[in-house]
Specification:
Elements lengths: L7 H14 L11 H12 L19 H15 L4 H5 L1 E4 L2 E4 L12 H14 L5 E5 L5 H9 L4 E6 L2 H13 L6 E4 L15 E6 L6 H4 L4 H4 L15 H9 L4 E10 L5 H9 L4 E8 L5 E8 L9
Parallel strand pairs: 3-4, 3-6, 4-5, 6-7
Antiparallel strand pairs: 1-2, 7-9, 8-9
Length: 308
């Protein structure tokens, strides 16, 4: 905090307001009233900062116009606008990404999926693995894999053109424009000879909230983030099961499907995969609370061939 006395009263008053009124969702564990205020203060000054960039930031005195802008920003946050939508920045797996209403704000919980995919890619021993990330949203999973394994050939896809545009912006922002993003439904953009039967890994953070529950979600989510990113159909697993049936056509023998699942869905989905002859190994990964949130499945077609 700067020692400038003139900014202290406004800072203290806004911090007290945020402490009293701000509802921080469990999926945003890094946000606090103080960190929110610091990010918004920087934004009022004309600086877009992610939460991870705050340690090197000291707020300065604001002009009258900047002070009024700060008050407006605080009100917008308290009305439910996600902090990442206001700042245009979001942390993910140690990197800062661009964020906007075009796609789901990358969550800390999804870092488990990213770490699992990176570990698996490193274990398969391919010199230049071919990877597809569907439901790519802001591109965070695809870009994390490309950053960790520069030799990988990484592609991403999303049904939303706006999300694909944001993913491409993030690729430029991180200087990873070798990652190619396409628009289309799940694996449809890759049903060509270049990919069929050749893919080492398919990853996905799919919509997995049941349709009936979407409107019951906190307003910060239901009113500000795209429904496409959450609505998984009547039972929340429609898109996941569609991926179960479409992935084998693209995976090479021994290739992997890795996906995030919703709370309570993991054991049932893992049993479903294990009961299908195309999958020779199904692994479940729990989070720190013991909830299964990531499933890996190894594709091994009957008789060593590829599914038609």
């Amino acid at each position: 905090m700067s020692d400038t006395a003139e900014l202290q009263p406004q800072f203290d008053a806004l911090l007290a307001r945020l402490e009293a009124e701000l509802e921080i969702l469990p999926d945003k564990p890094d946000e606090t009233p103080r960190s929110t205020l610091l990010c918004l203060w920087a934004l009022a000054e004309g600086r877009r900062l992610a939460l991870s960039e705050l340690p090197s930031y000291a707020p300065g005195a604001l002009s009258t116009d900047q002070s009024a802008r700060l008050e407006t920003l605080v009100s917008q946050r308290l009305e439910g606008t996600p902090l990442a939508h206001l700042t245009g920045r979001q942390d993910f797996l140690g990197e800062v990404l661009l964020a906007s209403p075009a796609a789901l704000v990358p969550r800390r919980e999804t870092e488990q999926l990213a770490r699992t995919t990176i570990d698996r890619l490193r274990s398969i021993g391919e010199a230049s693995p071919l990877v597809i990330d569907v439901c790519t949203g802001a591109g965070n999973i695809a870009l994390a894999m490309a950053g960790a394994l520069p030799e990988a050939r990484v592609f991403g896809a999303d049904l939303s053109e706006d999300a694909v545009d944001l993913a491409r912006e993030n690729a430029r922002f991180l200087d990873r424009e070798r990652v190619e993003f396409r628009c289309g439904d799940l694996l449809a953009p890759f049903e060509t000879g270049e990919f069929l039967g050749r893919v080492d890994m398919i990853t996905c953070n799919p919509p997995y909230i049941s349709s009936g529950r979407v409107e019951q979600m906190p307003g910060e989510i239901s009113r500000h983030e795209p429904r496409l990113a959450f609505d998984g159909g009547p039972f929340g697993v429609g898109i996941i099961r569609k991926l179960f049936s479409s992935a084998p056509a693209l995976l090479r023998p021994g290739g992997w499907l890795v996906l995030e699942v919703g709370l309570g869905q993991g054991p049932g989905l893992a049993r479903s995969l294990a009961g299908q002859p195309a999958w020779s190994e199904v692994l479940q990964h729990a989070d720190k609370r013991g909830e299964i949130r990531v499933i890996e499945a190894r594709f091994e077609p009957p008789h060593g061939g590829t599914d038609s």
